[in-house]
Amino acid sequence: MTSQEKPLTGDAKVKEVAEYLGLHPETVRSMARSGDFPNSYKTGAGRHSSHIRIPWTDVEAWRAMQPRVNR
Description:
Elements: E1 11-13, H1 14-21, H2 25-34, E2 41-43, E3 51-55, H3 56-65
Antiparallel strand pairs: 1-3, 2-3
């Protein structure tokens, strides 16, 4: 199943968001830390071993705010 076929509901892993937006996973992690995805959260108890989850609603809200490119 490709990223275009996945239902965009629930929460996504950083890798899924990166593939969907065409960004590097570290860029998505940085965006989550800086507040671009305000409802993102870490799973797990460890600071270094936790994984970030990002609600698809945050991803779509971020995309909607991006300027359109005229070709």
